[in-house]
Design brief:
Blueprint lengths: L2 E7 L7 H14 L4 E7 L11 H4 L3 E2 L5 E2 L2 H9 L8 E3 H14 L9 H20 L3 E6 L9 H13 L5 E8 L2 E2 L4 E2 L2 H12 L6 E6 L5 H11 L6 E5 L7 H7 L2 H8 L9 H11 L3 E9 L9 H14 L1 E9 L2 H4 L2 H5 L4 E4 L8 H14 L3 E4 L1 H13 L7 E2 L9 E5 L14 E9 L4 H6 L3 E8 L1 E3 L4 H6 L2 E6 L6 E6 L5 E4 L14 H19 L11
Parallel strand pairs: 1-6, 1-7, 2-5, 2-6, 7-10, 10-11, 12-13, 12-14, 14-15, 15-23, 16-17
Antiparallel strand pairs: 3-4, 8-9, 17-20, 18-19, 18-21, 21-22, 22-23
Bound molecules: glutamine.
Amino acid sequence: MPKFIFVTGGVVSSVGKGITTASLGRILKSRGISVTIQKLDPYLNVDPGTMSPYQHGEVFVTSDGAETDLDLGHYERFIDQDLSQASSVTSGQVYLSVLERERRGDYLGGTIQAVPHLTNEIKARIRAAADSARADVIICEVGGTVGDIEGQTFIEAIRQMRHEEPRENHLSVHVTFLPWVGATGELKTKPTQHSVRELRSMGIQPDVIITRSDHPVSREICDKIALFCDVDPAAVIPLETVSSIYEVPLILEERGLGAYVIDRLGLTGGRDLAEWREMVDRLKHPAGSVEVAVVGKYVELHDAYMSVKESLAHAGIANGVEASIRWVHAEDLETREPAAVLQGVDGIIVPGGFGERGWEGKVRAATYARTRGIPYFGLCLGMQVMVTEFARNVCGMEGANSTEFDPESPYPVISLLEEQLGVTRKGGTMRLGAYPCRLTPGSVAAAAYGTDMVSERHRHRWEFNNRYRAELETAGLVVSGISPDGALVEISEIGGHPFMLGTQFHPELQSRPNRPHPLFREFVAAAAAHRRAASQQPEGAAVAATG
Ligand code: GLN
């Protein structure tokens, strides 16, 4: 019988409910309790795969190919466990499956209603996620804040489950925000009181309240919240903003969250966050630093590159350096000299992307990296950039391009996958999820991974065009990762360059703070080596690589 923990948010969104949920998962797992985490997103999109990063940040992809909310990335990184499609539920999916059943005639004669049809579907999905993960505890986070219209069916389903399950099998955590009023210099609890009242009006009395704030929270404030919201004083846990998200499990455990939760759910298990603490210590005390340019389209919105950002932090921990990011607008590289924009960086990442805006700027970033021997790491679109740049400027294929951006290119070095020809529906139709990749012995990739076969997650339509493979290889491009049937180029490298590598997959989706992704680790190591070398010679004197 699994136990259920429901996490709701109050007052405002974007205060770290996802990190708090992920941290609770880490706390329980560290106590030897098996966990899984599920996100319940109230919006009507079936999945975030069709949403702009401006709406919802990065689209995280699970190994079984679900396009999900970026919180799933936090969950996986914190509990160090792969999640599946079952961990991502949206109102859109719930409606879709109920309506499909209605059209099939499954409810013939009945009136379809939010309660019980939608709520039954939600409850079934929560229970199915717990069962398929065979976890002792499932933590379900409801997106948005209490009171949102779309979220109401989720809250109602949770209310019903609280009624159906014995008391020791469920627990509700409410994450709120305490605003700071500058004029009087105090934190206010009233919005929290209101949001708890709203939650109670829907039949849910929270057991635990976690208060986010940007200022220290006194014991008096916690006691006041406990009194007004009818919660144990020990279960009101303050969580001030900290410099690293990875500190959150340590703080919450320190403040008694783990002990309170396991006691209330009748579980046992001593706390053990020693390894996690050691990781956070290394993160907070780097011996040096590197600066990496991330060249993208949505750089003013760091959430769009969440997993890239976190993977760099993990690789920094492994190398004992802080990997700071210089966010570079790809379009800036089209109007300004790349040298002026990229001056002094120790490495360049071109992350995944869609659409033409900024494409040529990204190609110029690759030229800059290749000719100056600066470590370059291309993630999905970033590999397509690297191959295009190499074809144009080393192989003399003038006008080489991806057919995504120039369907008439004389050298379509990146072209549409066979299976994508004729696909017109946008939702869930890319090459998605984990696929195996065979590594080429002696390559940078094989050395980084230290093995000959890996599995990596994908989200793309276009692909390296094998028609040009021989010519590019002759000119120095190394195909270092390939699908086991030999058909698809998954990793390529520029021979003779200290580190210029691109992956057709998204390695950033599998990096964990305690288990950095090997390619990110080696990229940051190369950036650190570049920094050491650069400090010994004047800027711009680095040797040019092949071509
Ligand atoms: N737009 C490219 C494609 O579909 C790259 C996608 C990506 O970077 N995720 O192949």
